[in-house]
Amino acid sequence: MCLIALAWRRHPEFPLVIAANRDEFHARPAQAAGFWPEHPGLCAGRDLAAGGTWLGITRGGRFAAITNRRGHPAPADAPSRGFLTRDFLLGDAPPREHVARLRRDCERYAGFNLLAGEIDGDLYYLGNHGPRMERLDPGVYGLSNDMLDTPWPKLLGAREEMAALICTHPEPEAIFALLADRTVPPDHALPDTGVGLEQERRLGPRFICLPGYGTRTSSCVRVHRDGWAELTERSFDEAGCATGTVQHRFALEPVPAQRG
Length: 260
Prior knowledge:
This protein has about 260 residues and is of the alpha+beta class. It has helices at about 80-90, 95-105, 155-165, 170-180, 195-205; strands spanning about 5-10, 15-25, 30-35, 40-45, 55-60, 60-70, 110-120, 125, 130-135, 140-145, 210, 215-225, 230-235, 240-250. The protein is built from 5 helices and 14 strands.
């Protein structure tokens, strides 16, 4: 996942709204979002190369998403970052406990930003450069391939449009329109992450379309105050053309508290 705009407890009907683009090599096999047969409470896409996921939500109200961090390559024998998302979603520890435990060990992974939360609990952010861990207050946040709310043009634009959307009724098609912007920011606004100006231009739009690499999926997650959740995912081919949309709406079934 390379761009996330998230509204946390800012809309009167939707305590959680997520807009996210997953940018990846088209040759890397993946499965569209759905319920996993061996974990029927988990709704998520699946990376078929390693087995993890980039974004998901469970019937029990746990949700997580991850982005890669540019400029922080994987150490030798590093596990897939998709396991970070998957392991939280399939676990039962509160977000703070889970993220604090991960923080002690996070530098064995390539650079990442993890969002992990519970609808009836807390939302935490962990970036493994530093590392940086924080509990997120109600608000609108953005993530790309640097730390939380780093002011890259694609992040600023997506976060601003998300803030405007939650003043209305955030429908999936409006979320997809937010994520579909292919405008290349002006050179002076682009970050300098060591990949060169031409590559910064290619990677600068919210929606990326390059030979062999680009935005593979756009996702919209909405959780309603009445107790239902919805994950809508749209897939794209190498030419940037939509190839299909899946939508899963289901009732949340909070797990009874067993925590001391």
